[in-house]
Amino acid sequence: RRPDCDPDGLSPIIGRAFRAALAEASRHMGATAPNPPVGCAILDAQGEILTVAAHHRAGAPHAEALALRTCARQGLIDRAATAVVTLEPCNHTGRTGPCSEAILASPIRAVWVGAADPNPRVAGGGAARLRAAGCDVRMLADLPDSDAAALAADCRALIAPFVHWSRTGRAWMTVKQAVAADGSMIPPAGRTTFTSDGALDVAHRLRRATDAVVTGIGTVLADRPGLDVRRVPDHAGRAGRLLVVCDRRGRLPDDWRAAATARGFDVRSCDDIARVPALLGEAGALWALVEAGPALLDAMRAEGIWDDWLTIGVTPAGRERMDIAVRNGTDTPLRLVPGLAAPREEACFPAS
Ligand code: AOF
Ligand code: ZN
Questions:
Q1: Residue 347 has what pLDDT?
Q2: Residues 6+ apart with CB under 8 A from 168
Q3: Is the reported ipTM for this assembly greater than 0.85?
Q4: Distance in Å, CA 226 to ligand 2 centroid
Q5: Which residues contact 98 (CB under 8 A, 6 or more apart)?
Q6: CB contact at 8 A, 83 and 54
Q7: What is this structure's pTM?
Q8: For atom 22 of ligand 1, which residue has the closest CA?
Q9: What is the largest CA-CA distance in the chain?
Q10: Which residue's CA is minimally distant from atom 15 of ligand 1?
């Protein structure tokens, strides 16, 4: 019996491979749009991980193709037996060739899939193609045990913005709000400057993992925020990150726009916050981070323009805490952002 064929559910070997593939994929969150982040581990017949790879950006090889190529280059391809993939392998020729065929051209005959692909060009087709060619394809979601369910939830969380965007054309909106221990926003008066080092670190990790930033004209005028990624290494060569400024009366200063453009932002202003998720989606951004003052955040809450809402605060004891409210119980990509401490509590507040 193959080491990964555990009739009672997920073997520790496959679980470890999924965690490695998820970790590698999440390092590329924020760089792959309009494609989803995807990770792939290739194992030999004894369950040893031969390689782990991820999709880096649209137009670059898919995770499976890169993993296979790496195995081949290292002379390990003859040992490849099992592929563990966070997303169903594609079966179409888009910017690159079909991963199903790349797998079938290798000795791999067992494929573990973490999440189904919502793309109508792929949905079900990759798994069906592999099965038709005699591969043993298993979906994590079909396994009964709780380890498998937790990993399947992480694989769904990894692509939650992509799934949402594929279905609606809108970007997934993550709102980040700083609150004081008494629940008031810190600092007050429309400023978004963070006092705490930890909160600043969170902001930079989130900016790195998302495809776009949304802010308000009030914040721009009051703070002239840089909204850049300095505290963690940004994705190499990331081009034209979208920056949407909600500005009803055309007050965006030309010099600030020019400065943001010089820092690599593609700056757009929008006079209707209800339009922002679609505007982002049309520009190919899957996931946006909203960093704004109380007026814009109140409007976003009132109009229900958010998919998850992260509050960062300091407890009365002076300890930092993060709470995440997730809309409709959907999986949140937030828990996979590298280096983001696990939220202390998951709460859900009503949309208005
Ligand atoms: C995979 N592995 O690593 C990724 C997949 O235009 P293309 O060729 O890059 O194809 C993009 C579509 O492929 C994308 O919309 C999604 O459905 C799937 N992404 N599939 O097998 C990967 N990134
Ligand atoms: Zn593919």
A1: 45
A2: 277, 281
A3: yes
A4: 36
A5: 89, 90, 91, 92, 126, 129
A6: no
A7: 0.91
A8: 62
A9: 68
A10: 35
- Distances, alpha carbon 75 to alpha carbons 51, 68, 69, 83, 266, in Å: 12, 11, 10, 17, 43
Q: How wide is the angle at C-alpha 326 spanned by C-alphas 321 and 329, nearest 5°? A: 135
**Which one is catalytic: 24, 48, 64, 291?**
64
Measured in Å, residue 342 CA sits from the centre of ligand 2 at: 30
Distance 63 CA to ligand 1 centre (A): 9
Residue type, 266: D
Neighbouring C-beta atoms of residue 142, cutoff 10 Å: 9
Inter-residue contact 147 to 75 (CB < 8 Å):
no
Structure tokens at 135: 């591969």
Question: What is the edge-to-edge ordering of all strands in the sheet holding 308-314?
Answer: 265-270, 241-246, 212-216, 287-291, 172-179, 308-314, 320-326, 345-347
Number of the ligand 1 atom closest to the C-alpha atom of 89: 21
Annotated active-site residue 320? The verdict is no
What the block records as the tokens of 152 is 């399947």
Residue nearest (by alpha carbon) to ligand 1 atom 9:
95
- Taking the mean position of all CA atoms in its chain, how far away is CA 312? 19
**Ligand 1 atom with least separation from CA of 94:** 8
Surrounding ion ligand 2 within 5 Å at CB are 62, 90, 99
Q: Are 154 and 140 in contact (CB under 8 A)?
A: no
* Cα–Cα distance, 320 to 346 (Å, whole number): 15
pLDDT one-digit tens code per residue, 173-224: 999 988 766 666 555 444 444 456 777 788 889 999 999 999 999 999 988 8
Which of 125-134, 300-309, 336-345 has the lowest average pLDDT?
A: 336-345
Write out residues with Cβ below 6 Å of ligand 1. 35-36, 38, 55, 58, 62-64, 87, 89-90, 94-96, 99, 117, 119, 122
Q: Which ligand is nearest to the CA of 96?
A: 1
Question: Token digits for 296?
Answer: 């814009």
Dihedral-angle region of residue 330 (phi above 0 means left; psi in -120 to 50 means alpha; beta otherwise): beta
Q: How many residues does the chain have?
A: 352
Closest listed residue to residue 79, CA positions, set 115, 37, 107, 114: 107
